[in-house]
Amino acid sequence: MTPDLSTPAGWLPVAFMALMGLSMLAYVILDGYDLGVGILLRRASDADKDTMIASIGPFWDANETWLVLGIGILLVAFPFAHGIILTALYLPVTLMLFGLILRGVAFDFRVKARDHHKPWWNRAFYAGSLLATLAQGGMLGFYIVGFEWRWESGVFALFTALALASGYALLGATWLIMKTEGALQALAVGWARKSLWLAAAGVAAISVVTPMVSSDIYNKWFSLPNALLLAPIPLMTAALFVVIQRSLTHLPASHDRWCWVPFACTVGIFILAFHGLAYSLFPYLVVQRITVWQAASATESLMIMFVGICIVLPVIIGYTIFAYRVFWGKARALSYY
Question: What's this model's pTM, rounded to 2 decimal places?
């Protein structure tokens, strides 16, 4: 039974779920493109590798703030669900953290190592980026199916891992199209074309499987008038994929003023996919097992934390916007002198 949303006990858990969703969406988009750049790193020349790293250098570390915020909200606002989710996903979470640590170490050491060691740190940055991405994709797959450990679930989780890697590669490639020029920009266009349709297949697979998990989710999407009201989500998603494909056919030969279009459309696809998934799963934090109200901490505790979030969140948003404003424009080769 849904609590009265006009009371703190009713709206506070929903507010924290929305804040957690916002944090995870921001993480997926912002850290997604720099993980994608890391995945693409092994395909570039040494000079291009430096430019690729320079394009994410001012942002990548701060981008992970959103992951910390999202997991922190899950821990303090929904401790019951936190225990269930992190227990079920213990192995992929461990692999993700190992990948993030590896890429963080590699990012710093690649610029300090001797010349003959630098390729090894480049490989480590690539491996850490790929490992973290595959782990996140696997977690997404198992979360959607409600942590049911069957072979079908394993196949689906493996596919979502590969599809998310392709989606992040698409984000990374379109980011490089926007941030670079010349030969590297042309390479990025080719990388984006290769990543596009596997990412599209991943979005389609999640869209098909999610309603099959539960009759409630199925009815949310396919009962009337919901089916008509929600039709713009898949239609807009398909349209954005077409726009990306068409824009890539004209880049980089077209005027550079439109180089932002593929990245903006890719971000739009991630937002629409996240919106559809959130609509499907709400009000559950664990599919068909735990609702947001059942998992929530005491109302008094949530109210104190809500005041803190109202102070901290604008600061995070503010310095994120400021950083992107300061370092906007084309990336240049790395220089440490």
Answer: 0.92
